[in-house]
Design goal:
By secondary structure, the chain is an alpha/beta fold. It has a domain at about 1-230 and about 425-435: Amidase signature (AS) enzymes. It is about 35% helix and about 15% strand. It contains 14 helices and 11 strands. An 11-stranded mixed beta sheet has the order 1-3-2-4-6-5-10-11-9-7-8, sandwiched between helices. Helix 4 (about 135-140) runs parallel beside helix 5 (about 160-165), helix 6 (about 200-210) packs antiparallel against helix 14 (about 445-455) and helix 8 packs across helix 11. Bound molecules: glutamine. Glutamine (GLN) binds next to loops. Glutamine binds near residues 184 and 407. GO terms for molecular function: ATP binding; glutaminyl-tRNA synthase (glutamine-hydrolyzing) activity; transferase activity.
Length: about 450
């Protein structure tokens, strides 16, 4: 813990930690020592971790990287961070992210962007660690902590993991409790670990999951021993390669990564089969209707009364002006864009044309996966991202849709509620990490982690 705290102080330039909690860390580290001496050894005992700012942490600022939550110190602890604490994990502080987890580069944060510790060869251009869990990815990649929590609504664990050479798993929807995690799009949001290795991910995931009566969508099903599942034996497993993920203009390096990964799984005894997931091309538009729709509803609670920031009012201002000024000052441009899109697609005249249609597309995407699994496929291999990490500012200044295209390989998994993992599997020609994604069956995290380990 002391080594991590020193490393964190020396790495302020990465802007990964937005709130440091050294006193809490040292107190928990001492408590972990005492537990070890007493012969207790819970899974995460004494392991220093960072917590994404989207998780409410008792008495510690939890702002979802938004000005609208400035000064908010929750009186409660999210279920996932409480479970980690109870399993002996040591919280080092809160990690940077895109505002309300909306983004793919960590550039929408009210704290400014986190920075990727990787560089393109000798080129000093600072790169994005990805988003929205950019601080988590940067901190793990730079060895500021041994693991970090992330959340993934459309790729926010898997894309930053791929951009930083780390491992990130989004579990099946319902595996982790969402209680105490600031809501973005409730039917898509899931927490998960970001770590250096698949084994670490298995251990940390085990401490994060489980049924929670405080989240009605959390599943009351048995939790396997994820670490014990890492046998390395994938003989006889069937891996599907979905042809619709072979996008036009896909960089050759990504193609090669994908075929190298396929060969590794084959060499380990898996059977490789081409599959079709025909509705893939509708996933991104459906996601960018459903996610903003749910966000616009979830973000209605930031009204200047119940949490955080309230704008200064002029004489004569009424409640409408208070809402307008507070939300205009408190939300950044990307969040405002999402609220406007979401409100539009839910409005009476457009609900059927956009929101209901997107929901129907979502059902078809889920059915594509169901059919592949029913035909005997155990896991699906795809690239995690369409490129390696891009330069800070390179995308943010472009059309927002260019940023949304980053999520093309990841959103299908959230729409279908499936588990997905990103594993670092190679470097591109400029020396930047690239990741492959494995998609598993519902509740199949143990198998998925075991298969992922073969790709490491
Ligand atoms: N980049 C996607 C978005 O902006 C996904 C974000 C996430 O998974 N939280 O919505």
């Amino acid at each position: 813990t002391e080594a991590c705290l020193t490393a964190i102080d020396a790495a302020d330039a990465l802007n990964a930690f937005v709130h440091k909690t050294p006193e809490i860390a040292l107190e928990r580290a001492r408590a972990a020592d005492a537990r070890l001496q007493a012969g207790e050894a819970p899974a995460m005992c004494g392991i220093p971790v960072g917590i994404k700012d989207l998780f409410c942490t008792e008495g510690v600022p939890s702002q979802a990287a938004s000005n609208i939550l400035k000064g908010f110190r929750p009186e409660y602890e999210s279920t996932v961070s409480a479970q980690l604490r109870d399993a002996g994990a040591v919280m080092l502080g809160k990690l940077n992210m895109d505002e309300f987890a909306m983004g793919s580069s960590n550039e929408s944060s009210c704290y400014g962007n986190a920075v990727n510790p990787w560089r393109r060869g000798n080129d000093a251009t600072p790169l994005t660690p990805g988003g929205s869990s950019g601080g988590s990815a940067s901190a793990v990649a730079a060895d500021l902590c041994l693991g970090a929590t992330g959340t993934d609504t459309g790729g926010s664990i898997r894309q930053p993991a791929a951009f930083t050479g780390t491992v990130g798993i989004k579990p099946t929807y319902g595996r982790c409790s969402r209680w105490g995690i600031v809501a973005f799009a409730s039917s898509l949001d899931q927490a998960g670990p970001m770590t250096k290795t698949v084994r670490d991910a298995a251990i940390m995931l085990g401490a994060m999951v489980g049924h929670d009566p405080k989240d009605s969508t959390s599943a009351d099903i048995p939790v396997p021993d994820f670490e014990a599942a890492l046998t390395g034996d994938i003989r006889g497993k069937t891996i599907g390669i979905p042809r619709e993920y072979r996008m036009d203009g896909m960089p050759e390096e990504i193609e090669k990564l994908w075929s190298d990964g396929t060969a590794m799984l084959k060499d380990a005894g898996a059977r490789i089969t081409d599959i079709s997931l025909p509705h893939t091309k509708y996933a991104l538009p459906a996601y960018y209707v459903i996610a903003p729709a749910e966000a616009s509803s979830n973000l209605a609670r930031y009204d200047g009364v119940r949490y955080g920031h309230r704008a200064k009012l002029a004489p004569g201002d009424g409640i409408t002006e208070m809402y307008e000024k507070t939300r205009a000052e408190g939300f950044g441009p990307e969040v405002q864009r999402r609220v406007m899109v979401g409100t539009y697609v839910l409005s009476a005249g457009f609900y059927d044309a956009y929101y209901n249609r997107a929901r129907r597309v979502r059902a078809l995407i889920k059915r594509d996966f169901d059919e592949a699994f029913a035909a005997g496929v155990d896991a699906i291999l795809t690239p995690a991202t369409p490129s390696s990490a891009f330069g800070l500012g390179e995308m943010a200044d472009a059309d927002p849709v260019a940023m949304y295209l980053n999520d093309v390989f990841t959103v299908t998994v959230n729409l279908a509620g499936l588990p997905g993992i990103s594993v670092p599997t190679g470097l591109d020609s400029r020396g930047l990490p690239l990741g492959l994604q494995l998609i598993g069956k519902p509740w199949g995290e143990a198998d998925l982690l075991n298969t992922a380990q073969v790709l490491e």
